[in-house]
Amino acid sequence: MRTFDLSPLFRSTVGFDRLFDLMDSFAEQSNGYPPYNIERSDDTHYRITLAVAGFGEKDLAIEVKEGVLTVNGQKEPAAEGDTRGYLYQGIAGRAFERRFQLADHVEVRGAKLENGLLHVDLERLIPEEKKPRRIAINAPELTSIEGKAA
Questions:
Q1: The CATH number of domain 33-78+87-128 is 1.10.10.10
Q2: Cystine design at 61: which of 6, 72, 97, 121 (Cβ 3.0–4.6 Å)?
Q3: 51-87 pLDDT tens trace
Q4: Would you list the domain boundaries of the chain?
Q5: Which residues are within 8 A (CB) of 51 and not within 5 positions of it... i.e. 6 or more apart?
Q6: For the whole prediction, is pTM greater than 0.90?
């Protein structure tokens, strides 16, 4: 894995802290494990699917905090009586942490594990005051109830 040391740039720049933080977070996640897909089924529903072969429900943890969805995987250590030795181990069972930055008003609706795939369902809930409204042209003016004389 390639790593880049950006520390010399920190000394000579001012105001680019967020850019460097984004670059650092990208470098941390560039290992590509576990692989994932992000799907959109309609305008408000999304799904993140992670390939977590070999992990059970007890080995996985999902958390949402401050707009960041974090999926952790940690396998339990093998039992003491387990004497099998691998001739070749191609299924990765290493611990992982995968983070996803959620957009505003996106909430996690549920998660399920089936056939080695972890599905996390998301929904974008737009508040009424943020939804677009149609304004009628040449419509009579709206008057408030308080404006009428008694």
A1: no
A2: 72
A3: 998 899 999 999 999 999 999 999 877 667 667 787 8
A4: 33-78+87-128
A5: 34, 35, 36, 116, 117
A6: no
Q: For tokens 């009579």, what's the residue?
A: 140
pLDDT, tens only, 94-116: 899 999 999 888 999 999 999 99
For residue 18, how many other CB atoms are within 10 A of its CB?
Answer: 8
Pairing of strands 60-65, 68-73: antiparallel
Query: What span, in angstroms and rounded, lies between the C-alpha atoms of 37 and 48?
Result: 6
CA-closest candidate to residue 106, choices 67, 149, 70, 51: 67
Residue 113's SS3 state is strand
